[in-house]
Amino acid sequence: MKIWERAKKRAKSLRNLEMVRGIFLLSDMLRDIYSGRYSPSKGTVAAITFALVYFLLPLDAIFDYIPFIGYIDDAAVISFVIERLRGEIKRYMDFTRK
After folding, report:
1. How is residue 69 annotated by DSSP?
2. How far apart are CA 33 and CA 27, in angstroms?
3. Which residues contact 2 (CB under 8 A, 6 or more apart)?
4. Where is 29: in which H helix or E strand?
5. Model-level pTM?
6. What are 49-56's contacts with CB under 8 Å, separation 24+?
7. What is the pLDDT of residues 5-20, one digit of tens each?
8. Phi-psi region of 27 (alpha: psi -120 to 50; beta: other; left: phi over 0)
9. Alpha-carbon distance values, 12 to 18, 29, 42, 92 (Å)
10. pLDDT tens digits along 50-77
11. Whole-angstrom Cα distance, residue 77 to residue 98?
């Protein structure tokens, strides 16, 4: 299963809508990057890849199998990456509207 499919599948189990939207957005960006439709900087690709892999791995700073608090660190990483890439995300959203 490809990384963005895993992210989307896992995101569906979360209750925080903004977190889910962020995961969908990052996974869509990564899909378009790897398909060659969108070309951001290598740092952007690395940040998105890191955030989604961190989200997908159950063994991280706070283990995901711990009810409720297991996703706190995942949410922090996703939120941090989205905030840092705000300009690139805006460019991507403009790109997808074309």
Report:
1. G
2. 10
3. 31
4. helix 17-34
5. 0.77
6. 49/3, 50/77, 50/81, 51/26, 51/77, 51/78, 51/80, 51/81, 52/3, 52/4, 52/7, 52/23, 52/26, 52/27, 53/3, 55/7, 55/10, 55/23, 56/3, 56/6, 56/7, 56/10
7. 666 666 555 556 777 8
8. alpha
9. 12, 18, 28, 23
10. 999 998 887 787 777 777 777 788 888 9
11. 29
Supply 52's token pair. 């989604």
CA–CA separation, 77 and 49 (whole Å): 11
CA distance 85 to 78: 11
Indicate the SS3 state at residue 34. helix
CB atoms within 10 A of CB 75: 16
- Let me know: does 23 contact 3? Beta carbons within 8 Å: no
> pLDDT at position 52, please?
94
Element (H, E) at 54: helix 42-56
